[in-house]
Design brief:
Alpha-Beta Plaits
Length: about 100
């Protein structure tokens, strides 16, 4: 797998919630859903290359899957990772 293919796989989709939108307005931070095995360096490089912006910092959070039941069957939804990327002053990403 080439490095460009990996970059497109690292940034899966934007995570748009009220809290994420507030982070964008207050501290110029954008939130993305990323693979569980992605690290901060990969996330930073992918955002900088794909969106042509300067990244100041990257914070990550692993979200644990919730326990689910359907009748007798018990299971768990999949774990996923969230990355909050803070951009330098004056730069934006159009995620919508």
């Amino acid at each position: 797998m080439s490095s460009i293919d990996r970059m497109y796989r690292v940034i899966q989709k934007p995570h748009i919630t009220e809290k994420a939108s507030d982070g964008t307005l207050v501290r110029n931070a954008y939130t993305f859903r990323v693979p569980v095995d992605a690290n901060k360096v990969e996330i930073r490089q992918a955002v900088e290359k794909l969106f042509d912006v300067q990244v100041m910092s990257v914070n990550t959070l692993t979200v644990r899957g919730k326990a689910k039941r359907r009748g007798y069957n018990a299971g768990k939804s999949q774990d996923w990772k969230k990355a909050m990327v803070v951009l330098s002053e004056g730069q934006t990403i159009d995620v919508l």
